[in-house]
Write the structure tokens for this entry.
Amino acid sequence: MQLNMTEYVKVKDHPHLSRDMNSRAIVNTNMAAYEAAVRRKNATKQQKDELRDAVRDINNLKCEMHEIKSLLLQLVDKK
């Protein structure tokens, strides 16, 4: 994030905050905190993806087990 200091004014007593004079928004200029937040978000997304994949695999295994059980019951019934 590159700041044009003519458009931003530092917020008193908050070294990592600036006010955007165009939108009047408060902007956090602490890049380390921003990067840490992005890393946390990406790690959370990866965990959710891994969990979703594990659930999908479990559900596939359940379906396959059901199919195997049905085939075994058919074999037993034929005897």
Notes: Residues 8-78 form one domain. Strands lie at 8-11, 14-20, 26-28.
